[in-house]
Amino acid sequence: MTASSPAADDLQPIFESVGRIFGVLGEPARLRILHALCGQERCVNDIMQATGLAQANVSRHLARLHQAGLLVRRREGAQVFYRVAPRAPLDLCRVIAAQVMAQHGQAPRDGDRCFSVFPLDTKEQASV
Predict the structure, then answer these.
(1) What is the DSSP letter of 53?
(2) Model confidence pLDDT, tens digit, residues 35-77
(3) Which residue in 37, 79, 91, 119 has the most C-beta neighbors within 10 A?
(4) Within its chain, how far is the Cα of 10 from the centroid?
(5) Predicted confidence (pLDDT) at residue 20 exceeds the cutoff of 70
(6) Shortest CA distance to 70 belongs to which of 114, 17, 123?
(7) Max CA distance (Å), the chain
(8) How far apart are CA 28 and CA 21, in angstroms?
């Protein structure tokens, strides 16, 4: 180990945080929800329609994604709207999705750096 490299013990909180995020992203239903929310804000009913998941499952997964810092929510009257949080690790999801698609002989559907599996929102597109 070099003098500038932090010891593994010093990095333990980082390893634990990364592990928690991978744990949250390890559930396919949560990835379906993230896919439905990429590029747009949606209410719970719209997320249910987009994913085909039951309300109880959507609510449970939304809570986990929000607790992990991957989603932002806002209340408008009786409805709660969700969107992907700034700095959520969607680039990681895009890279992995591209690799999986390539392994299955599929090319990404968009011609640019963004993959339609986890599309960029308008703010992300402006910064690309």
Answers:
(1) -
(2) 899 888 999 999 999 999 999 999 999 999 999 889 999 999 9
(3) 37
(4) 27
(5) yes
(6) 17
(7) 56
(8) 14
Cα–Cα dist 106/63, whole Å: 32
Beta bridge partners of 79: 76
Over residues 89-111, the pLDDT tens digits come to 767 777 777 777 777 777 655 54
- Rounded CA-CA distance 6/58 in Å is 40
Task: Please give the Cα distance from 11 to 33 (Å, whole number).
Answer: 30
For residues 117 and 97, the answer to whether their CB atoms sit within 8 Å is yes
Q: By 3-state DSSP, what share of the chain in percent is helix, strand and coil, each rounded to 5?
A: 55, 10, 35
DSSP H/E element including 43: strand 42-43
Beta bridge partners of 80: 75
- Per the structure block, which two tokens stand in for 100? 């999986």
Residue 124: CB atoms within 10 A of its CB come to 17
